[in-house]
Amino acid sequence: MTEKALRLGTRRSKLAMAQSGQVADAVSQVTGRPVELVEITTYGDVSREHLAQIGGTGVFVAALREALLRGEVDFAVHSLKDLPTAQHEGLVVAAIPEREEPRDVVVARDARKLTDLPRGARIGTGAPRRMAQLNAYARTHGMEIETVPIRGNVDTRIGYVRSGELDAVVLAAAGLNRVGRIDEVTDFLSVDTVLPAPGQGALAIECTADNADLIAALAELDDPFTRAAVTAERSLLAALEAGCSAPVGALADLLADGQIVKEMRLRGVVGTTDGSTLVQLSTTGPVPETHEAAMALGRELATEMLAQGAAGLMGERAH
User: Fold this and answer.
1) CA–CA separation, 250 vs 85, rounded Å?
2) Which of 32, 225, 250, 261 is the most exposed place for a label (fewest CB within 10 A)?
């Protein structure tokens, strides 16, 4: 007889279904068991309010976690940037697979790049982090732009550009890649222009802490470099006490000498939404070998950023 299917809890959005489907295939390969998707509606999916107003990070995660703890699903897949930084009791992130492209991208009318946008261009994004950095970039490069808060799925957001309501929208490359729409991108934003959200492009596979067999099986999908990088980024976010409504960007990347990875660089930014003030710093150190070392890298950079005045910029954080 075949083993019974593993139940994978997923949000219902097209993007969530796409990324959960990819994980389901991978889990099926490592466990030899079929995986079925169980669709769960979260508060973040049904609420029409702006993310910053409904409590920011966690709104897409709570319902999935409740289903896990009630035993309705065996494991769940989250976009790591949606996951609160505090560890949830009774649950464990068993795997963080290799990260997708972490950058943000522009989808603009007339195939324009950010630098080619017309004067006064209206750019849509749901993230104060993107607004802060886009506005700061515009200020320092003599551009006139207006950032417009939007939400909704990929179709809705790109629809604002297609209909002419907006000149451009800024989205995560990873999401467009996963739903097969990366060819609609008109500009990849350098991380020097816009640092992504902590954990952007990475997925977290979570299950209950007492399911030792499943934890061991899922661990085969874990990418240690990705885990170290996103742990450092999320540690920075936690140390800045920033909910996702605060404009924080972070990216840890590996610096290699030829084929040999030598160091990890962590960059962080926090700013006011209008872009008038940014605190942007980076630190480089040995590639963290342990969870504690990755956490320490994030905390150290956060301490420096706070010393440079980051705390005064956090007025918009979710309480």
Assistant:
1) 14
2) 32
Residue 197 contacts residue 127 (beta carbons within 8 Å) = yes
Catalytic residue list contains 81? yes
The CB density around residue 257, as the number of other CB atoms within 10 Å, is 8
Distance between CA atoms of residues 25 and 97, nearest Å: 13
Structure tokens at 298: 């994030």
Looking at residue 4, the DSSP 8-state letter turns out to be P
Q: Is 90 exposed, middle or buried (0-12, 13-18, 19+ CB in 10 A)?
A: exposed
Check the CA dihedral 236-309-304-274 and report its sign. positive
Pairing of strands 35-39, 6-10: parallel
CA distance 96 to 77: 10
Phi, psi of 208 (to 5 degrees): -75, 145
The answer to whether 169 touches 106, Cβ cutoff 8 Å, is: yes
Task: Examine the residue annotation and report whether 178 is marked as an active-site residue of this protein.
Answer: no
Band of the pLDDT at 186, cuts 50, 70, 90?
very high
Tokens 């309705």 correspond to 72
Catalytic residue check, 14: no
Q: Which candidate, 198, 195, 186, 217, places its Cα nearest to that of 75?
A: 217
| 220-239 confidence digits (pLDDT tens) | 999 999 999 999 999 999 98
Q: How far is it, in rounded angstroms, from Cα 102 to Cα 196?
A: 7
Q: At residue 106, what are phi and psi to the nearest 5 degrees?
A: -110, 135
Whether residue 122 lies in the annotated active site:
no
Q: What's the CA gap between 60 and 254, in Å, rounded?
A: 30
Is position 11 annotated as part of the catalytic site?
Answer: no
Active site residue 265: no
Cross-strand bridge partners of residue 286: 263
Of the residues 65, 81, 99, 317, only one is catalytic, namely 81
